[in-house]
Every structure is written in structure tokens, then in C-alpha cells.
Design goal:
Length: about 240
């Protein structure tokens, strides 16, 4: 294929198989990181697609004490809300894996001063992963409008170059706190989990390196895509 360097693509028969494969892939990266650096820093996205992956991950033989979880993005909503990505982490990994709450660094979206909270979260990333922070694995999803994390079409946050954590405008009813391109693109590995035929058009554009969608600006060289057959129906390989 001409154009940008292809992402590493791993196609599974269906969404359940893709979730299980993504969990195994994360487990392998966790073991490598724990062996090399004594710690594995995993940044997790929300949405509906990763729930099964996180349940599968809870059953994997990870070096659990070495794991530190941070959030890729979060909606400004009350603690415990179904709209919070943290709720997904609590219902999957914290409920089913040998993981302590202190191992999860939640985005402080319930703070009164959200701008200060974003700066505080960036400082937490530096405490965990150095200055500038380098995350071991960033898990990303792909929206049907081409967004990833909470980097959505037309938002000013797309141009953020001097902050690793930023606030968006209102998108689908919520402001959000999100990691920005600089920290995403420093990650040692990026894992895309994309499933379902509704994602087929955007997966094709992601694989093709379409820079007109937000997802197209994420570093490709260290990225791995786990997907299912329905999501690949439009790929031009």
C-alpha cells in the first residue's frame, strides 16, 4: 500500500475474539515493561468497545503489583456516573482483578477548577512516567467521526502542543479532560481496539493515514490495531 507506513493490523473473527487478543497483547507488553523497568503504565480509554477487553484483561496473568493505570480521557460528570470512563474501570478491573484502587490515577474531573485539575493530572503523569512522561501502552478507540481519546473534530484541543492534558469544549453533552497528541505520541506502544461494521469507514481512513480525522495524527510507528472482520470490510489493503 502506498502512503504512510501501515499500522500493524491483527484481525480476529469477531468482537469477542478481538477483545481477548487485545488483552493478551497488553499482557505481553506488561511483562516486558515490568521486566525492563519494574512498572507498567497503561492508559485506558472508555466507551463501549473496551468493556470485554478489560474483563478479559482481569483474567490474565499480569504482573499486577507493577501496574499503574491512568486515563486517556474522561467526561466531566459526577463520580459513579455511567458517563464516567472511571466507572468502566471500576466495574471491570477493580471488581475482578487483583488491583488496588491506589493503582488507578483518575482524572480529577469533579474539581471546581478544571484547568488547574488538568495541570495537576499532567504533574501526576510526570511523577509516574518521567519528564516528559512516557507511557508504556496507550489504549485508544475510534469514533465514527474519526475522533480518538477526546480529540474530536473541530475542537481547539487538537492544536495543543504545550500541555499533555487539556480540556475540551462540550461534545455529546459533556466537557472532557483528555490526553493530547504530544503525550500520546511519546508512548512506547499504542493499541487501537476497533470492532464492528459501523467503524469500517473510519478504520479504512485510519489505516490509510488520513490526516483529516483526529485519529490520523496519532503516531503510527509504534501502533498496533486489533480489529474484527466486520470492521475491515472496506479496507484497501
Amino acid at each position: 500500500m502506498n502512503g504512510p507506513r501501515p499500522l500493524t493490523l491483527d484481525t480476529q473473527p469477531d468482537a469477542a475474539a478481538a477483545a481477548a487478543q487485545a488483552a493478551r497483547w497488553i499482557t505481553d507488553r506488561a511483562r516486558e515493561a515490568a521486566a525492563a523497568r519494574g512498572r507498567f503504565i497503561l492508559a485506558l480509554s472508555g466507551g463501549t468497545t473496551p468493556r470485554q477487553m478489560l474483563l478479559e484483561l482481569a483474567r490474565q496473568p499480569l504482573p499486577w503489583p507493577a501496574l499503574r493505570i491512568v486515563q486517556v480521557d474522561e467526561r466531566v460528570a459526577p463520580r459513579g456516573s455511567a458517563d464516567r470512563n472511571l466507572t468502566l474501570i471500576e466495574e471491570t478491573l477493580l471488581a475482578h482483578a487483583p488491583l488496588e484502587p491506589a493503582q488507578v490515577r483518575a482524572m480529577p474531573v469533579d474539581a471546581n477548577d478544571l484547568a488547574a485539575a488538568a495541570r495537576d493530572y499532567a504533574a501526576q503523569l510526570e511523577q509516574l512516567a518521567g519528564t516528559p512522561p512516557v507511557l508504556d501502552v496507550v489504549h485508544l478507540g475510534l469514533g465514527d467521526d474519526g475522533h480518538t481519546a477526546s480529540l474530536v473534530p473541530g475542537d481547539a484541543v487538537l492544536g495543543a502542543t504545550d500541555a499533555d492534558v487539556a480540556l475540551t469544549g462540550v461534545y455529546h453533552g459533556h466537557r472532557r479532560m483528555t490526553l493530547t497528541y504530544p503525550v500520546l505520541n511519546r508512548a512506547r506502544h499504542v493499541l487501537w481496539l476497533v470492532s464492528g461494521d459501523a467503524k469500517a469507514a473510519m478504520l479504512d481512513r485510519l489505516i490509510a493515514g488520513d490526516s483529516t480525522i483526529p485519529a490520523g495524527h496519532v503516531e503510527r510507528a509504534r501502533a498496533h490495531v486489533v480489529t474484527d472482520v466486520p470492521a475491515t470490510k472496506l479496507l484497501r489493503l
